[in-house]
What we know:
The complex is a heterodimer of chains A (about 180) and B (about 400).
Chain A: H1 2-35, H2 37-44, E1 50-56, E2 62-69, E3 72-75, E4 86-90, H3 93-100, H4 106-111, E5 115-118, H5 121-138, H6 141-147, H7 157-180
Parallel strand pairs in A: 1-4
Antiparallel strand pairs in A: 1-2, 2-3, 4-5
Chain B: E1 13-16, H1 24-30, E2 36-39, H2 42-46, H3 50-59, E3 66-68, H4 77-89, E4 94-99, H5 101-116, E5 126-127, E6 137-141, E7 153-158, E8 163-168, E9 176-179, H6 189-208, H7 214-236, H8 241-261, H9 265-277, H10 281-312, H11 314-319, H12 325-344, H13 350-353, H14 361-369, H15 383-394
Parallel strand pairs in B: 1-9, 2-3, 2-4, 4-6, 5-8, 6-9
Antiparallel strand pairs in B: 7-8
Helix pairs in contact in B: 4-5, 6-7, 6-8, 6-10, 7-8, 7-10, 7-12, 9-10, 9-14, 10-12, 10-15, 14-15
Amino acid sequence: MLAKRIQPMVFQARRLYVELMFQVMGRALQAVSEIDAAVQKEARALPDGFLFEMMVMPDGSRLIVEHIGNGRFHYHGNTAPRPVDLSIQFKHIAHAFLVLSFQEKTSVAFANDRMLVDGDISYAIRMTRILNRLETFILPKLVAERAVKEYPSNLHLPEKLFSAARIYLKVASNFVETVRA
Amino acid sequence: MTNQYYEFFCPVKVIAGKAALEHIPYELTGLGAKRPMIVTDKGVRAAGLLDPVIAACEESGLEIISIYDDVPPDSSTGVVKDIAGIYRREKCDSLIAVGGGSAIDTAKAVNILVSEGGDNIAEYSGAGIIKHPLKPFLVVPTTAGTGSEVTSVAVITDTAKSVKLPFTSSFLLPNAAVIDPRMTLTLPPHITAATAMDAMTHATEAFTCMAKNPLSDAYATAAIKKISASLLKVMDNPKDSDGRLELAQASTMAGIAFSNSMVGLVHALGHATGAICHLPHGLCMSLYLPYVLEYNLETIRGPLGELLLYIEGPEVYAATPASRRAEASISALRKLRDELFKRCKLPRTLKETGTVEEHQLDTIAEMAMDDGSMMFNPKEVTLEDARAVLKRAWA
């Protein structure tokens, strides 16, 4: 009985969590593309103006980033200025929650058909590598190991901490700028 | 509570065995089709493989309205448009693909145009664009390897833009796959070997990659058992129709397995090598399989060890310590490749192909990194890893 009464609150909390995580990830993608050479190298293969979307079907939360050239991303929030080039779509908010709460790795979510790719699959693979790189920086190692297929053995603590601090600082500044605007 | 989750889907009716072709008229009539069009290629026609299909239909009073026999090895948007035009002009109402991967993919694409309308197949490229069932469609494979008769994917080249367009929809699946041993009886030895190793790779990767599931496992192991038992017999006696049927069924089973569990690094490297060096897909699969299994070994030790039972049989499996079974499976596959090399010179290394040059390895590795199959490889592959596997496969 109690479970039934609190269920709407649980659903609401899950929706808010996914929405918040998309906002953090979108800003963090922009930040990591400004500081990490490996991400920049991966992103340079994307066409300039390339719009990437990650969303929850059918019309739920979403994040949209644009490759603005030279390996840099710009976070557009949840509105695309034009039709997106690549969309990774969670079939249900429960699946998005599993991935964004690090209960299911992104690669496992793909293998489990939790997500659809609409667009060029090779770009989706590239974007997944970028997301993995971001997660290894911003998450504690124990959590990151649950999020990515294999935690990189060559990522050492000083580099991780330094990069994470710079990314979080940029994410926080971006949040403040958004609120001010 | 278990964390396991999987999806499995295969609505294709499999019609397999002696006189299977003679079921085509019944199947088409049951689908309300009376005016079928055959899509095939010149090689199939020249080998006389259309004759039993046409005879089977005519004997039952079902007239083949049109035959398109000019499908190229890499089918294009222009070819699809031309065939759709003929289909409409001749007022056909169904399709029969007779051939290998290219003829089957072309017929799948033609079916989209003639069912959904329009002349530009590129408009339907992508996943989930097609929302309705298509026209009645039967597939008669003439190679035992691709498994295209049970996959919901087609790839067509857009010649104007020089890109390969993928089409993915469960509606692309044929209503029935007709597996008749007569259709593969005349396959030359090197194609028999390469296509069988393609099926072997589909099954092995299906069983060892990330999206494996209990149902795809059952199909994969059955396919591996059939290929291991029949391939060398067929190589020694190409007219062995029972062995041919076993290989053809194995190919379909491997197709069902991998289309539900996906494939990994062998395919990623194979797709890139095919695109850059124009090597046949089956040959690439045979070439890379043991090297990739060695690379993935520690991640797939359990399932790879299990495969020894299906590759070598119960005696060898029982006699091999559990801790050595994964390595023994790789050795058995290497032994199989050596036997195929003895019989038809199927290359075992990139150098043996005589086509690939060492300076191309970096380009192959880079292209493979962006291949969709990479996602499902059980081990995270870096560019350096891909280069290392290629280096080992070189010579």
